[in-house]
Amino acid sequence: MQPLNAAFPLKQTVYGILLCFCTPAFAAQQNPPQTAAYSQEWLPVYPQVSVNGRVSDGLFPFMSDNGRIFVQTDTLYALGINVPQAILQQADTRQKSLNTDTETITTNEPPLSAVPSETPAEEAATPAASEPIQTAYEPTVSENHTESGNTQIWTDLSSITGLDIEYNAAEQTLALTAPLDWLNLPTTVIGQKPERAYDIAKPGFAGILNYDANITRNSSGGSTQGILAEARFTTPAGYLSHQHIWSRTRFSAERIKSQNRNVRLDTFWRSVWPEQGLIMTAGDLITGQTGISGSARIGGFKLEHSYRTQPWRNTSPLRAYVGESTLPGTVDLYLNGVRQYSQDVAAGEYEITLPPSISGRGNAQVVATDMLGRTVVVDMPLYGGSDMLAKGLNEWSLEAGYLRKNYGLKSFDYDKQLVGSGTLRYGLTNFVTTQLHAEGGGGYRRFGIEANTVLGSLGQLNLSHAQSFFKQHKGKQSSIFFSTQYGNWTFGSGWSSTDDAFTGFNALLAPAGYHPEAFKRRTASVSVGWHSKSLGSFNLSYLRLKSDRDQTDKTGTLNWSRNIGRRASVFMSASKYSGNHNTYHSIYGGLSISFDRGYSASVSARHESGRENSYRVALNKSGSGVGSTSWNIGWEQQNNANGRNRGRLNGFVRHETQYGDAHAAIYHTPQSTNWDAGWRGGLVWMKGGLFPTRNVYDSFAVVSTAGLAGIPVSLSNNHVGKTNSSGLLLVPNLSAYQKNMIGIDTTDLPQDIRVERARIQAVPSERSGMAVDFKLKRMQAASMILKDENGQVLPANSTVFHADDTPIAVVGFDGQTFIEHLVSGNNTFEVSLPEEGGICRFNIDYQAKSHLGSLPDLGEILCIRQ
């Protein structure tokens, strides 16, 4: 915010000095009217001028008469004040009337012409306008403010309606406050930060193998062994992925027969251009899934544009408020009573952009306070929708290929009919996001449209409609859903209708089974939620499903939960179902308590009318990352309606390591005991090393510590492992396209190790690897005390030079000296003594191997004068 006069004492002094020189020159150029009144009262002045609180640099000429200030139009223009012509004409009329009444100066005196500056220096001293400064005062105002014979008219500032004036003759300051539409001021933008893309690491060459090996066995002798694996090869141009499953099942001890399965799941190549947001996939893929279309597996080609490769970019609609301030001031933004940011603004318009963190219904409040303490508060009820795109943004995908059949059962089973689909999401406005989808092939077609819209501050409305065409049958599907949130309340309601003839790609895989009937399925739902700190959270929902076959299913549910202190919580759920000539209800509730070190316990009970009752108690231990163990053990008792009781015991344990996770589970009843165990891990080849690791489903990094082993490495302040004997460690499961903070622990490093930086920001590409090199350098250095041949310490500030005359150190107090960059063997140095003390030389025999891990103190070293 610009103060009214940020450096008034200094500026006033400067202006006063300039005024001493400019005023006589100005007066000398005057050819005043022959009246005593003018010579005694009319004076040229050069005040420090501020316009709407902003101090204007430069000298601007004004005329003063008994406290009245006169100005030329060009001077107002130079100050950035564009007075409308109608206002100027009114000022002329008002000033003419005033002069006639007062008769201060006779009206028959002709206007005097302007006298231009004699030198460029004089012209530069008064830069008020582009034209030469006019030095004549015309007491009677002409009919307009145009030039006539190179003459400029002086106007009384007080006669200009709408212009506020505050003139201080003693301090020579003039504060002008004009309407904002007279000023050409820039708009101050508040809160909107420019988009800043960060660098994404180029993928390197790497090989990845993820595997999940598991074995199960039941009490009847049956067993299953299986491996689910993914092999991936990454390059700078993209990556190739292949997924496979192998299993062998033995059904029982009596039946020796076993079943083997060896099936390819998915194989595809993917290239990504994150800066453009483009993704290309060739091979096995899934078509775009939207609210009006289900997904389908095909073998083919897909090209898509998505903002998920640019997480730094905000794609949600942002609300903005435009206000104005006549004087400089401060603008604060509050969201739901919490201040988000505050910023000083100059006079003029300001645009405040609301942050994208608004979800659901809320209230934004803009508080503008000017330099005089006047405050204006503007309340803006608003609603932040989900799955919305800002105006003009779009995402799309195009797919073409052949439908996959018997997925998970056969490796290469594709339909022979070519199909394709396309989807487009577009931000029509900041309040409406539309979506179009089309798919078809083999005599099947389907089209759909969807719209998400925010209804002011009321809530969000979703509308969709789709039609399918197959075997001369036309099917329709329509839906509408409304949701809102107000304070502690949430509300949602929806309706949908689907014809039996409505179908998708699955009709092409089984055309013989497509026999639509003339009925519709209609679904209606409503839910209401309320949250209270003292009473807990409540949610009531109702679902009604009806078809033309006179079958109606109704389900009502009430849920409640509440925290008791910081360690305990209680929950309860009650539901009622009626339909198909049956009605039953159920009640479920429980209590959970957490303890220190990750331990927790829970008890729960369930009652279902006409069916069974069950009771369960469990004890849990949660893990804390690599090197930790988590487990669960529980007992459940079931009582059937026919009087039969049965209990079961189940337990689970998992241990996480840097190289993979081991897990085992057991399920025991009086009749049978089943168990399973397995190991889940991975192998990564990169930078010439093979790393056993946990599953690497996302991106990863190979950390290098310059050959130093045993260095702890962390990811987002969570320990992930230590470097191996080669100083390398693989860090799995980084977030693609996002900032991942990788750090090393330098507290236990040897003394002779120097670290340039201990934290590096890693931004990998999708499911690829990158190298993160911590530049650790081993120092060969030593400290010593330098003395002369007489045993006296060398004077402080003496300069130590290497043999090549390069200065490398300075002698400190008491001869203390620290020298770096020593070489193994003999080192010769010269010391330049201050105050013409001459030069002395000394040698150091440094054995690097004997000083690994330390910075030795070599004690006293003699420096011999030359």
Automatic annotation (TrEMBL):
The keyword Methyltransferase does not apply. Residues 100-129 are annotated as: Disordered. Residues 116-129 have a biased composition (Low complexity). Keywords: Signal. Residues 100-110 have a biased composition (Polar residues). Pfam families: Usher. It comes from the Bacteria. Residues 1-27 form the signal peptide. The keyword Transmembrane does not apply. This is Fimbria/pilus outer membrane usher protein.
